[in-house]
Design a protein that fits this description.
Length: 247
């Protein structure tokens, strides 16, 4: 079965908008684990606009030995304030997987993957260090990417296909070309010996179609849609609970 890793960034966004400790990111992780998810994902950024270093450490303590822990981020973004850098966090908490993503500080969300031919030399020592720490390394790539043999040669074990264009095409009712590009990319990666993850804007509506097109899909990381769907699905129940108290 494909592993579901729940991205909790949006929980931290809501908490940070008010200050304080609620909603509690560790309680959210516990809820997801009890529901059966196989992993938790976070993507700390230097500006700390959502998940922060103390969240990364707190989750590491509660998740160890229970489910997979995936930390995403730009390995080239330097330390800033309380943010020590992605590799420094990995050294501290030794997550199951580190997903390297080439996002810049100004991006609202990740929107492109690595150019492997261009970036491989710069990635080589970072991948080597993460492997030495015992972390599985995944690279965020665009559908249509090639040169996966280069990634495998430096110790990368997985890719994560950026599925934003597929999700947009699905919403427009014309997913065939974008889905085919993802499937071709997955096939090339698997032929190079890499396992395939996927993430970005996957949802209950489009996930089934995507999974059916990607044999051997190892993992999906879903946050934005999942948290939104949970909000809508759980809101009525919570309102009824409040009304029961007020009767």
């Amino acid at each position: 079965m494909t592993l579901l890793s729940v991205n909790l960034n949006k929980i931290a966004v809501l908490r940070n908008s008010r200050g304080g400790d609620e909603p509690d990111i560790c309680r959210a992780a516990q809820t997801c684990i009890e529901a059966g998810c196989g992993g938790i994902t976070v993507h700390p950024r230097p500006d700390q606009r959502h998940v922060r270093p103390h969240d990364v450490r707190a989750l590491a303590a509660m998740l160890r030995g229970r489910v997979e822990y995936n930390i995403e981020g730009n390995p080239f973004a330097g330390a800033r304030g309380e943010y020590p850098g992605l590799l420094a966090l990995a050294r501290e908490v030794r997550p199951t997987q580190v997903t390297l993503v080439p996002d810049s500080d100004g991006q609202i969300t990740s929107d492109h993957g690595f150019d492997l031919r261009r970036d491989i030399a710069q990635l080589r020592p970072l991948v080597g260090e993460l492997c030495d720490l015992g972390c599985r390394v995944s690279l965020f790539v665009d559908a249509g990417s090639q040169d996966f043999e280069l990634a495998a040669a430096i110790g990368v074990q997985r890719i994560e296909i950026y599925t934003g264009p597929y999700a947009e095409a699905f919403a427009d009712g014309q997913p065939a070309a974008a889905l085919s590009a993802c499937a071709d990319t997955a096939r090339r990666a698997q032929q190079a010996g890499l396992a395939v993850n996927a993430g970005h804007d996957l949802s209950q509506a489009n996930l089934g179609t995507f999974k059916a097109a990607i044999p051997g899909l190892a993992e999906v990381s879903i946050g934005h849609a999942l948290i939104g769907e949970a909000l809508y699905e759980g809101l009525a129940c919570t309102v009824r609970n409040y009304l029961q108290i007020l009767r």
